[in-house]
Amino acid sequence: MEVAVLGLGEAGGRIAADLVAAGVGVRGWDPARRPEGVPGADSDLDAVRGADVVLSVNSAAVALDAAARVAGELGPEAIYADLNTASPQLKRELAAALTVPFADVALVGVVPSLGLATPALASGAGAARFAELFRPLGMPVDVVGADAGDAAALKLLRSVFMKGMAAAALESLEAARAAGVEERVRADIAAVIGEPLLERLLSGSRLHAVRRAEEMRAAAAYLEDLGVKPRVASAAADLLAGVDPDEPVGLERSE
Fold this sequence. Notes:
Helices cover about 50% and strands about 15% of the residues. It contains 11 helices and 7 strands.
């Protein structure tokens, strides 16, 4: 199997490296990164030519442009899988922009830690084939629907809780630090959810604030489509947009 990986950031780079370790032929493309040990292509077009599977691990903001650029180079038997966290509508637009089976793949674990073993939800015309190819490589793939966007919808609904909890932890500890009781409040929160999860919520929000703010905006828009007022999703998006990676608990301070 030949796999093209478009986007070699923290998630794409780890998945690409795991695919190489599993003996899969990999051609990676990223205009800004060339992770060691991942065979690179000269361009995104070169990466996808002859690929059995294309994994788009960019960002939602560029996902449609990335698909449109390579669409004409995809072989008739190829599968195009978009692993970005995006709105169901964007996933449907991606499927419509391609002439090959499309798989909407939502990763629901910590990719930098789990890599290819990250649990995934998949939907769309190419979902069953994606699962058939990637389950033997160690990825737990749950096919959740026939329509592009089904997997994205489930991921966003989950994100309302997970990113909402992260936002609540950030705000609570920012206030606790201002009150001089951060250590006590952190211990109280950790007693409820565990220190590993608390640290994951805090450090992950600092490292990926921009992407997570975009994710929560997509979640808020989806909730509005469902007729649900996105109180938590909108608040989490606003809070994450103000995260400063240099602050101990991750928020910008107003002087």
